[in-house]
Amino acid sequence: MPDEPAPPPAGDHPAQHAPATPGEPLRVEVLSAVFQVRTAGADDTPTLCVLLRTPDGSTSPGAWRTLPGGDVGTEETLAQSAKRHIADDLDVAGLAHIEQLSVFSAPHRVPGTRTIASTYLGLLPSDADTRLPDGAAWVPIDGLDPVALPLAYDHGEIVDAARHRLAAKLSYTNIAFALAPEQFAMSELSEIYCAALGYTVDTTNLLRVLSRRAVVVATGTVRKTGRSGGRPPALYRFAESELRVTDEFATLRPPM
Amino acid sequence: MPDEPAPPPAGDHPAQHAPATPGEPLRVEVLSAVFQVRTAGADDTPTLCVLLRTPDGSTSPGAWRTLPGGDVGTEETLAQSAKRHIADDLDVAGLAHIEQLSVFSAPHRVPGTRTIASTYLGLLPSDADTRLPDGAAWVPIDGLDPVALPLAYDHGEIVDAARHRLAAKLSYTNIAFALAPEQFAMSELSEIYCAALGYTVDTTNLLRVLSRRAVVVATGTVRKTGRSGGRPPALYRFAESELRVTDEFATLRPPM
């Protein structure tokens, strides 16, 4: 039996890993774009909102806003760090989904020390109750305005990347489970898709596609509405609460 | 017109960004899993291979192997750094696709200084000619053996993550354009899918699905073969050489 080669001694990194500029100070921060579809505006339109905060809890209108986040601790992974920083504002148990977005690494994205941001997308169901500390707020994404509500550094680009990722995944995964309540009428789900995508989605087509792919299933119950008139709507739920690709080529599935 | 708030002075980071442990030394490295489908074995079977190297160009059989990579330079992004390190081994002009994988950040993944790895998936067409320097080699992924060919640290997990990402994207994107030659018979493309997925793919079904989705198109020409007998196979090409999701729900497309 061949001997297993001894692992390299601690601290003895391969030569190719020697820093290009030894000792250059470097920071790694974690930033999360946390989204929830919330009613907003005079007519309570379901609207995709992002969680923003002021660094010091300030509520002054001109204060810079940042995504929740901060430095990574010595004994935690980036994902643990992301959840720890979100927990400053929210009960993270309510987060139905969190995933890595890309890393933002432009050399001077933050003035001073070189700072590389590892970013996350977090999603909350629309009925999750959130009580926020001072200086934190849900802000409609379409209402982000660099003058009225200035975002720090490249945090606006991170929100854009998160929204782009969400829209893409709505098209080939079941990710909407993380934005929807446990049970919903299809018209409600359609409003959530519309808020997240930015354009209208036909409820009948949505039900047809999501049913055929076994993404949503009927609960067999109807909504008891207080409103008079009209048939009470049938209720549905997502079949799963873990992300999966709903749409693999039949030919590319692994053999049973 | 409202005054635009002044940006925070350089180096004056929001309080939440103060390091958890000020001054803790931290390294960020870039590591790339570069894949190519290559013929291997006695019967020249098309096989998914990964580019591995020894840190010092050693060709000794027991030497540790690493993914190409290293530290990020002061004035480059992580993506630029990834390409720079790959260029030590390969002509990067041959890379048909490169994308970020996830960040590997377990606190003690590398002994000594805390080291966070930002990882990339790179793909080369099967007919790209690659001449490698000493100590670099294409290794069949299914032949990776921790005893015969020990990989450094968590580099084996990074290869697994890269392969998983590739297999997933083969199912809902046109990513195979980056593994295939410019023109190909469908039986050849089927072999490439099979090598990347790890199971057999039916050529007729593959052609049907990829044609219907306008992922591949016929060139109108046939292969001039030296072999006698049999009809010369029709040639195809990918319609695009940029990654796109091939499979969006019709109902979720933005309005024209």
From TrEMBL, chains A, B:
Domain of life according to the entry: Bacteria
InterPro entries: NUDIX_hydrolase-like_dom_sf, WH-like_DNA-bd_sf, WH_DNA-bd_sf, WHD_NrtR
Gene3D superfamilies: Nucleoside Triphosphate Pyrophosphohydrolase (3.90.79.10), Winged helix-like DNA-binding domain superfamily/Winged helix DNA-binding domain (1.10.10.10)
Location of the region described as Disordered in the Swiss-Prot/TrEMBL record: 1-22
Chain intervals with Pro residues compositional bias: 1-11
SUPFAM superfamilies per record: Nudix, Winged helix' DNA-binding domain
NrtR DNA-binding winged helix domain ranges (all copies): 176-238
Protein name as catalogued: NrtR DNA-binding winged helix domain-containing protein
